[in-house]
Amino acid sequence: MFRFAILLPLFSSLTLFSADDVTPAIQQVLTRQQDAWNRHDLEAFMSGYWNSPQLTFFSGARETSGWQPTLERYRQAYQSSGKEMGKLEFSELKIKSFACDAAFARGAWKLTMSGGKTPHGLFTLIFRKFPDGWKIVHDHTSATALGYHLAGCR
Fold it and tell me: Measured between alpha carbons, how far is residue 60 from residues 71, 84, 123, 150 in Å?
């Protein structure tokens, strides 16, 4: 019994990281991103990403490194002449933490474009917790083959 009393504080200090701890905060980041996208505000959308040259974004068999190049990739794909952003919707979110300051989210995305096109696919995001909140440090996004060139959409 004495040994148990000594070990109990040790084991009770070990935290099992559950999605319940981080889910609301990460869902809030994704909701803010979705809302920003639907306002066509890419800078606000990008505030969910880590503003660092070490940010990584994988999509369409391309790797983009850095916050600014990722923003430029989105601009080229969705705000250049003849392009549109559409309405973004996230669904099927699953969020799991694997450390007190690290988590991943996976889910589905869909864009509703004018003319009825609905490009969609899946994503996996790695989040880290910084002093200013949870930020995406890695984004891996895939799209279904719809004959729609997807240069960087989630």
Answer: 16, 18, 12, 7
* pTM metric for this prediction: 0.82
- pLDDT tens by residue, 1-12: 444 444 444 434
Number of domains in the chain: 1
Residue 110 structural domain: 17-143
Tell me if 109 is assigned to some domain: yes
Q: Where are the alpha helices (DSSP H) in 39-134?
A: 42-46, 67-78
Domain harbouring 44, CATH code: 3.10.450.50
12-57 residue pLDDT tens: 433 444 545 899 999 999 999 999 999 999 999 999 999 999 999 9
Determine, yes or no, domain membership for 12.
no
